[in-house]
Design brief:
Number of helices: 17
Distance between the termini: 92 Å
Radius of gyration: 25 Å
GO molecular function: beta-glucosidase activity; galactosylceramidase activity; glucosylceramidase activity
Shape: globular
CATH superfamily: Glycosidases
Keywords: Glycosidase, Hydrolase, Membrane, Transmembrane, Transmembrane helix
CATH class: Alpha Beta
Structural class: alpha/beta
CATH architecture: Alpha-Beta Barrel
Strand order of the largest sheet: 2-3-4-5-6-8-11-13
Helix content: 40-55%
Family: Belongs to the glycosyl hydrolase 1 family. Klotho subfamily.
Number of strands: 17
CATH topology: TIM Barrel
Enzyme class: hydrolase
EC number: 3.2.1.21, 3.2.1.45, 3.2.1.46
Largest sheet: 8 strands, parallel, barrel
Length: 536
C-alpha cells in the first residue's frame, strides 16, 4: 500500500548523468579517445551505429543545463569526469589537458554558485583508449596505479570544492558487459574469467584511491569517498522453497555482493567462492576462475567506503537452475539460477526494465542487514521510454518515480540509513549499446535539431513537487500534483510539435530547396545542350 509521509529534514534530492552519455565534443580541446569512442566507431556495435560523438552537446551547454537543475530545485547533481578529457592518454606523467581541467572547474563552480552540490564520479565507463591498447585495460593490474594517479589529480584540482566522490559507477557492467559478453566497450568476450579479473582489479583500484584520499586529502578537504553499485532485487519464485530462497540469495550476492562484500566484509561472498570454485574444479582447472585476495589485501580493502551509492532499476523472480559443467562456464552459468518476470508487472520502457517498486525496499533492507547499515545515497533510479515516444506526458515515469521513492520512505521507517536520492537522468542521452533508442531523461531532447533543445516532460513538474514537499504529504495533494503535471505537459507538447515543424521546414529550406534548385539548373543545361546540337 502507498505510504503518505515526509522524508527527514536535510534529505538530499538530486538528478544525475554521465560524461560520455551527455558531453559530446569527443575529440575537441585536447580530449583523448576513450574506449567508448573506439567501440562506437566500429560498425555493428551500437543500435543504428549511433555514437556519443556529440551526444547532448553538454560540453557546450553547461549553463543551459544548470538552469534546468535550478528549475528542478534539486540539492545535488551527480556527474562524472571523463578521464581522457583531463588526461588524454590516461597516464599522468605523459600529458595533462588544461582545457579539460578548466571545463570541470567551471562546471563545479557554476553548480556551487547556484547552490547545487556536485557529487562526482571518477569513472563512468570511459577508460582512456591508450590504456586499453597498451595494457589491456581492466584486465591488467597496472590500472590500479594509473587510476590512483588520475584520482589524486582530481582531488588536487577539484577537492577543495567537491566533498562527495564516487570511485566507480556500476562496476558490475564494466566487468560483465565490457569483459565477458562484449556488449559494452571495450567489447571483450573473455568468457569464464574476464569479468572476474576486471572486477578484482577494480576493487583493488577503489581501495587504493580511498586510502590515498584518507592519508593525503581527508584532513584538509573533509570530503567523503564511496562507490556506486547497481543491483536488481532477486525474489524467490516460491518463498517456501529453500532452493529458490538460496537461488535468490545467490542472485544478489553475485550482483551486489561481488563488490560490496569485499568492501564491507573483507572478501568475496562465500557462495560466490564456493560456486565458482566448484565449477572451475569440474572444468579441470587447478585454481578457481574467481581470483583470491591475500590476507593483507582483505584487511586493506575492508572498510574503504564512507558511503554506499546504490543504483537500482528493477526486480526479477529467481529459481534454481542447474547448468551442466560440460558447458563453457561463465558468470551467468556459475550462478545456477534462472530469472523470470511477472507478465503483469508494468513495463513503461524497454523489456528489461519492469516497474516493481517493492523490490527496492527489500534491497535496501538487505544492505542494512548484510553490511552493518551503511550510509546510503541512491545514485541511479529511473525508467526509460522508447525512442518513438516523443510524448512529453510521461505517465509511466511519474508512476515509477512515485512508487520507487515511496519505497525509500518505507525503508527509512525500517531504519535504513538513506540520506539522498538521485533520479536518473536529467536528460535523454546516449544509452550505450542501445544508442538513442531508450530515453531516461526528465527532459526530452530533440536530437534531430542542430541546437538539441531541451523540453520538460510531465515528470519534471511531478518530481519538483516531491522535492518541495520533501515526500508525499497527503492523498489529495499528491493527486493534485499528478493532474497539474499532465496539464503542463500538454502545453509543452504543443511547443515541441511547433518546434519540430519549424525544424522540418528548416531542413526543407537548407537541404531540399538547394537540391531542387541544383537539379533545375542541370536540367536546363542538358536541354540547352540538346537545343544547340539540334540547331547546329
Amino acid at each position: 500500500s502507498f505510504y503518505y509521509g515526509t522524508f527527514p529534514a536535510g534529505f538530499l534530492w538530486g538528478v544525475g548523468s554521465s560524461a560520455y552519455q551527455t558531453e559530446g565534443a569527443w575529440d575537441k580541446d585536447g580530449k583523448g579517445p576513450s574506449i567508448w569512442d573506439a567501440f562506437t566507431h566500429k560498425k555493428g556495435k551500437v543500435f543504428r551505429n549511433e555514437t556519443g560523438d556529440s551526444a547532448c552537446d553538454g560540453y557546450y551547454r553547461v549553463k543551459d543545463d544548470i538552469q534546468l537543475l535550478k528549475e528542478l530545485r534539486v540539492n545535488h547533481y551527480l556527474l562524472s569526469i571523463s578521464w581522457p578529457r583531463i588526461m588524454p592518454t590516461g597516464i599522468k606523467a605523459e600529458q595533462l589537458n588544461e582545457k579539460g581541467i578548466q571545463f570541470y572547474n567551471d562546471t563545479i563552480n557554476s553548480l556551487l554558485e547556484n547552490n547545487i552540490t556536485p557529487i562526482v564520479s571518477l569513472y563512468h565507463w570511459d577508460l582512456p583508449q591508450v590504456l586499453q591498447e597498451k595494457y589491456g585495460g581492466w584486465q591488467n593490474i597496472s590500472m590500479v596505479n594509473y587510476f590512483n594517479d588520475y584520482a589524486n589529480l582530481c582531488f588536487e584540482k577539484f577537492g577543495d570544492r567537491v566533498k562527495h566522490w564516487i570511485t566507480f559507477s556500476n562496476p558490475w557492467a564494466v566487468a560483465e558487459n565490457g569483459c565477458e559478453t562484449g556488449e559494452h566497450a571495450p567489447g571483450l568476450k573473455l568468457g569464464g574469467c574476464g569479468a572476474y579479473k576486471a572486477a578484482h582489479h577494480i576493487i583493488k583500484s577503489h581501495a587504493k584511491v580511498w586510502h590515498s584520499y584518507n592519508t593525503t586529502w581527508r584532513r584538509e578537504q573533509q570530503g567523503m569517498v564511496g562507490i556506486s553499485l547497481t543491483s536488481g532485487w532477486g525474489e524467490p519464485v516460491d518463498p517456501h522453497s529453500q532452493t529458490d530462497r538460496d537461488a535468490a540469495e545467490r542472485y544478489i550476492q553475485f550482483h551486489l555482493g561481488w563488490f560490496a562484500n569485499p568492501i564491507y566484509r573483507g572478501d568475496y561472498p562465500e557462495v560466490m567462492k564456493n560456486y565458482v570454485g566448484r565449477k572451475s574444479a569440474q572444468q579441470g582447472l587447478g585454481t578457481s576462475r574467481l581470483p583470491t585476495f591475500s590476507v593483507q589485501e582483505k584487511t586493506y580493502i575492508k572498510g574503504t567506503s564512507d558511503f554506499l551509492g546504490i543504483g537500482h532499476f528493477t526486480t526479477r523472480y529467481v529459481l534454481q537452475k542447474n547448468f551442466p559443467f560440460l558447458q563453457v562456464s561463465g558468470y551467468h552459468t556459475d550462478r545456477d539460477l534462472a530469472e523470470l518476470v511477472d507478465p503483469n508487472w508494468p513495463a513503461p520502457g524497454p523489456k528489461w526494465l519492469y516497474s516493481v517498486p517493492w523490490g527496492f525496499r527489500r534491497l535496501l533492507n538487505f544492505i542494512k542487514t548484510q553490511y552493518g547499515n551503511p550510509l546510503i545515497y541512491v545514485t541511479e533510479n529511473g525508467v526509460s521510454e522508447p525512442v518513438q515516444c516523443t510524448q512529453l506526458c510521461d505517465e509511466g515515469r511519474i508512476q515509477y518515480l512515485k512508487g520507487y521513492i515511496n519505497e525509500i520512505l518505507k525503508a527509512l521507517n525500517d531504519g535504513v540509513n538513506v540520506k539522498g536520492y538521485t533520479a536518473w537522468s536529467l536528460l535523454d542521452k546516449f544509452e550505450w549499446n542501445k544508442g538513442f533508442s531508450e530515453r531516461f531523461g526528465l527532459y526530452h531532447i530533440d536530437f534531430k535539431h542542430k541546437n538539441k533543445p531541451r523540453y520538460p516532460k510531465a515528470s519534471v513538474a511531478y518530481y519538483k513537487k516531491i522535492i518541495s514537499a520533501n515526500g508525499f504529504p497527503n492523498p489529495r495533494e499528491v493527486e493534485n500534483w499528478h493532474r497539474k503535471a499532465m496539464d503542463t505537459c500538454a502545453t509543452t507538447h504543443q511547443h515541441l510539435a511547433a518546434d519540430s515543424l519549424i525544424t522540418h521546414m528548416e531542413m526543407v529550406t537548407e537541404i531540399v530547396l538547394p537540391t531542387v534548385f541544383t537539379l533545375c539548373i542541370l536540367i536546363c543545361i542538358v536541354l540547352l545542350i540538346f537545343y544547340l546540337r539540334n540547331h547546329s
